[in-house]
Amino acid sequence: MNSEANAGKSKKPVLKGYTLKELKEYFTTIGEKRFRGEQVFNWLYRHLIDSYDEMENVPKVLRQQLNETTGIINRLKLISTISSPQTGTTKYLLETLDGHKIESVIIPDEKRTTLCVSTQAGCPLDCKFCATGLMGYKKNLTSGEIFDQFKFASKEYKEDSIKNIVFMGMGEPLLNYDATVKSLEIFGEELTTQLRMRRVTVSTAGIAPKIMELADTGLRVKLAFSLHSCFEDVRSRIMPINDKYPLRDNLHAIRYFTKKTHSRVTFEYVMISGVNDREEDFKELVKLCKSLPCKINVIPFNSLEHMNPTGISAELQPSPYERTEAFVQALRDQNITVTVRYTQGEDIAAACGQLAITEENNTYSSVK
């Protein structure tokens, strides 16, 4: 049916990660009624069961058949958790069935709780301000592995229900496009979690053709674009992907996305001293924001010391607090909507740009 049917070492079909449509089709191919697909979908993604034996309204003989002929339900196993005593941010270390480790993060808030999920183990983009890029690329996650991050967080985090999901963890979601879209389709079904898709955000460093494809899916998710500079040369220096998909192409795709979805884009902007916090950076950013519906999410640059960076990454420093505050206020004076993503979880290397698995101990990275 798809690549996930051969996930891991098993050649059995892996139902975790199938969309509602795919599950209905699967059950018709094995001689069952289509509504069995809806039942199984409900148990997998709403009730978050761990075994087919828990599916109370599915006949016992069919449950036994599923146990024998399909892959196991849980696509990840929880290795450990670590929580920040300062902010309550919690980071999960999870392992895929083929032995790759990933991280996802719960970010608590008085109004809502946000889950940050990964779409790849590692990342191939090598953004110079991001620990995951320094870690390198290991593999694409399946849609089932993406969903199971939500499953673990929902079961482990007891204080509040998850209201927001952001695809901002390890990896570039649009380089794992098919699995990302399938997981979005699963989250978007009423039978799943009753999440509003407008509370789901996909972040990208800029894969222009896939931004346009995402707009055409009809999934009304929000788009966050890692901008970080309005200058092509600066962006290429800190984000090598800009050489393949330059900013001008991405801005064309973003305009298409905002028109198609009747939404505005969020520009993510990590403040790096002497790199993108200059007067000329401010002027170009204002010009860009006046040209399309958007808001800016300003992010203080977080330490990469836990990755022992070299080269450009070792040279980067956060903009001074006063400069960041002045930059934000000047943008607001131009009637531009700006939020500041104040650091949460930096003490456990769970803040923006810090997620990585260190090779030395193959476990949590932590700030030294």
Across the major sheet, the strand order is: 1-2-3-4-7-8-9-10-11-12
SS elements, strand count? 12
> What is the overall shape?
elongated
Query: CATH homologous superfamily name of the largest domain?
Result: Aldolase class I
**Judging by the overall fold, what is the CATH architecture of the largest domain?**
Alpha-Beta Barrel
Helix-residue proportion: 25-40%
CATH topology of the largest domain: TIM Barrel
Number of domains: 2
CATH class of the largest domain: Alpha Beta
Q: Give the SSE string.
A: HHHEEEEEHEHEHEHEHHEHEHHE
Beta-strand percentage range: 15-25%
Radius of gyration: 21 Å
Topology:
Blueprint: H1 20-29, H2 35-45, H3 60-69, E1 76-83, E2 90-96, E3 101-107, E4 113-116, E5 120-122, H4 131-135, E6 137-140, H5 143-156, E7 162-167, H6 177-188, E8 200-204, H7 208-216, E9 222-226, H8 232-238, H9 247-261, E10 265-271, H10 279-289, E11 294-300, H11 312-315, H12 321-333, E12 338-340
Parallel strand pairs: 4-7, 7-8, 8-9, 9-10, 10-11, 11-12
Antiparallel strand pairs: 1-2, 2-3, 3-4, 5-6
Give a structural overview:
By secondary structure, the chain is of the alpha/beta class. It folds into two domains: 3-69, DNA polymerase, domain 1, CATH 1.10.150.530; 76-348, Aldolase class I (TIM Barrel). The protein is 33% helix and 18% strand. The protein is built from twelve helices and twelve strands. Strands 1-2-3-4-7-8-9-10-11-12 form a ten-stranded mixed sheet. Strand 8, helix 7 and strand 9 form a beta-alpha-beta unit. Helix 1 (20-29) crosses helix 2, helix 5 crosses helix 6 (177-188) and helix 7 (208-216) runs parallel beside helix 9. The model is unreliable at 1-10, 344-357 and 359-368 (pLDDT under 50).
